[in-house]
Amino acid sequence: MKNFLSTHNRALKAEWLKLHHSGMLWFCLAAAAFIPAFHTFVSFFESVGDLSPESGNKMIKMDFEIFTNFFFPVFLVIVMVRLVYMEHRFDTWKLIETQPVSKAAIYFSKWEIAAIISFCCLLTLLVVAFLGGLILQYGRPALGFDQSNVDWGYALQALTRFWIASLCIISIQYCLTVLVKSFALPLSIGLVAIFAGSFAQALGYMNWWPYSATQITSDTYGGAPNGDFLLSHEKISLISSLLFIWLGYQLYRRRSIKKAFLSPIKNLAVAVAVIAVFAFAISVVNKPVILERYNATVIAGEIKSSTPVTQVLLLRSPMMDTILTIPVTTDRFHISTDKEIALGIYLVKAGSQVSRVFMGSKDSIYLSISFNEESPVVKVSGTRAAENDYLVNGKRMDMEILSRHADNVNPSDYADDLIEYHNDGIRMLETFKTSDRIKPANDFIRLRKKLFATQALALADGFYPKVYASYFPNQELEFPEEINSLRASVSINSPELISFPQYRRYVTSVLREKSGNNDSLYFAMMKDSLQDPYTRDVIMYEAALSSVIKIKDSILRNKMMAGILLNMQTQTAKTKLAEANGRANSLHSGKPAFDFTAEALNGKQIKKFDFVSKYVVVEFRLGGCEPCKKESIFFKSLADRYTSPQLAFVSLSLDEDKKSWHKEANLTKENKVMQLFSKDDRKWISEAYGLTKISKFVMIDPKGNIINPQLPNPSEPEFEMILQKEIPLQRFNDN
Amino acid sequence: MSFAIETRDLNYSYARDRKSVNNLSLQVPSGSIYGFLGPNGAGKTTTIRLLTGMLLSDKDNVFIQGKSLQKNLPEIFSSMGTLIEMPSLYLHLSGKENLRLIATMRGIPRNRIDDALQTAGLAAVANKKAKQYSLGMKQRLGIAMAMLSDPELLILDEPANGLDPTGIIEVRELLIRLNKERGKTIFVSSHLLGEVEKTCTHIGIIHHGIMRYNGTLEQMKASAYTAADVIFKVPGAEHWLPQITPQYPYAKTQGSDEITLPATSREEVTHINQQLVRMNIPVAGIQLRGGLEEWFMHIIDQEKDKQIL
Prior knowledge:
The complex is a heterodimer. By secondary structure, chain A is α+β, with helices and mostly antiparallel strands. Helix content of chain A is 55%, strand content 13%. Chain A contains 24 helices and 17 strands. In chain A, β8 and β9 form a beta hairpin. The radius of gyration of chain A is 33 Å and the shape is globular. Chain A starts with a helix and ends in a 9-residue tail after the last helix. Residues 731-735 of chain A have low confidence and may be disordered. Chain B has a 6-stranded mixed beta sheet, sandwiched between helices. A 4-stranded antiparallel beta sheet of chain B has the order 2-1-4-5, with helices on one face. In chain B, strands 12-13-11-14 form a 4-stranded antiparallel beta sheet, with helices on one face.
């Protein structure tokens, strides 16, 4: 050790001298600069990815991600092989080993040089990406680099994590190259290890594989969900680096595996002991943890926004009743509450942003909300980090797909499919871990398991019987035993699941099926079979809400609503339902149409009032259902034929994704239909106009009153007939 | 007497059934040029690797300037310069940079580098990459690197290997100069007897891992003499032989006009000659056969004989 310390500096300096004329530094520079330089170059011609806002940070992130995903580990392997092969080639080992420098210093200083090169490479990439951003700031102002500051702390944290992830690759490859005295073989082994790791990562396995470490860091660029500086694979990288430096040094010192680790027996014992200690350390770091509940219920967080936000609301779906109101001061909020919060999914509303969060009492939750017009970004950490990560990123089986593959399938096969999907879902749930090895808590797993059962049963009991009846009429439907055991695991009376829409769908589908599509029987069954008052009210509320939209006859509707409201206990549900019914009543001819705000293709704000003195036919579009697209085409052809300054055809999109709307609307720019993108609260406008998942056509007169709250589809002849009848235009340009 | 290098019963085997170095005891006096002689595969390089700590023997039995090698690694290399087999150089670096590397590792001032280049006759090509050097230049650079820190002891493995005659002479002169002018102890291995004879003051001979001989050049020359034959040119040798055999039972004829007899000293040769003249044998000439080369072969043969038996 004394020798090591006293001779280490000389050895390191000598290693540095060896890099002269070796081309290594140029290689490092070229490897690191290539991606950001190319990115900058290409950005002059087209936008690479979605940069604005935060262009500077995003460019650095993107370049880091691309580089570290594959190129970086390859770079490291090549560097290490070259550094060592430099000695193998003309056996200069014997030259440096007969100098008054300790062997440990020789071995370790070479490792240090590789680690320094790795760091320099990452630093170069960061600097070139930053310079690229500067160039683009002046070269392509449209990309918005002038409005974004680079968050250096964030970038340097990422750099450090990538570097730490690289250390293990260096150490293992070093060990390998010392052992195998050729150029091609260790290089090939390294490359194969990288490829194998990539495949395993793609399939979701081996997230500890050292050669994939930089790739995993790249996938979790933003850091650990729970805020640790290092993710567990990075900690493993550090630990196994030490192990492989030790192993490699033994190999180097003693020249062969046998002498280093096998004989004499003392070496074997030491090797086994060292490996055992490291294996234990790695297993401790790699072991999944389940977070304990906190001793109070705390919700805190931060908001990154250009417009100030004064409060954050915790809402309960589906009635959107406010559970907590949290004041925000200088973009931060914190509340500790004694209020009982039932375990489940809640909505967090900050400004216009709404996002989901799973929590309950005795949870401490931290929310980082960043405002971004295009896509809301809310990161949940704290005691429910793993649960919320699962809800966003967890691989899940889409059981709904089985609703498309039920035709002519006999019950036992269908049950097999359901059980298989159900079991796969549970397996994935049980093996889920966050990138920093946190597992969801058992209460969450229990709830999710029940949900899987409800999903399967919604299909088995709510959906499949209808399909079965049409293919096998007059036959008794009989499922195998497995479905019965599923039935035993969950019932429609599971109030703890009420916040999950899957459960609510299950209950309604089962009751629908039982009631044989008779509305009054349907509501009566809800009243009788659902015991928990809140659960009953929620189910009734949702069912009633869809009836409000469906039933056009106001007398019939009001009568039914009165009956339903009588059976409800929750005040919020009653109020909301009454409001919805009120809106439905006012949504008929002669009543003023609700105002809407929207954005036109040229970015101009449009309001309902802008159409005063014109007849307006509005198409409310929600995404792209196939029949709706067909109707849109008919709508456009009518707009082409009925051209008049007194008549406007408007297509108002309620799409979530502005970009896809923009793309689609741009294609039909020449059309006579005015393309608008709604700026209103989706929920509000849907309720105001009684919208469902399919397009709705509404006609408004020049005073802003409704002529017809629900036109037939444009493909039907009545649409045109109503148009001609209601609008007193002298003559249409009939072409 | 102090020894620059001393080994006591040094053993090493690569394979279990064959010892590459077998109970080797070797003494290199300080201030000597020690020629370590042996045919290819005799164990020379293995011995050198053991002397330089590249291979470690199981026991602590190598001593450099009286100090245990194993206990004083790596600082023992401060007083020791080595060149093992072909010079190991960083070919992508220039001669000067190679020397700078050694200077860095040894922690010695850089101004020695120019001196070393001068001594090795490489000043003109100092900034050329070592890749472009001729074999002789590489060898000289290797020696320059070994003596850069001015160590008391140089261990050189076949420094003349692969060199042309001029190169060999250059290296030889360099070694003699270092020894005479600066008093360095030089341990040099070779498989060329003539080379060793011209350079060294002390000789060690190894064969099949066994030390066959260890002594000064003078002693060796004397020993070599003892193993020589005297050839008397006698026309009609067959005819005269029966007259000689009663007195010299080892006499043999060789061809038709030569009689050979073993002799152990110059006096004995004179004595035999007088006897033969007294017997009226017509001695036409006297010739001494053998010398170092013969003796060297003889030593190696002994080993072979042993193996055959």
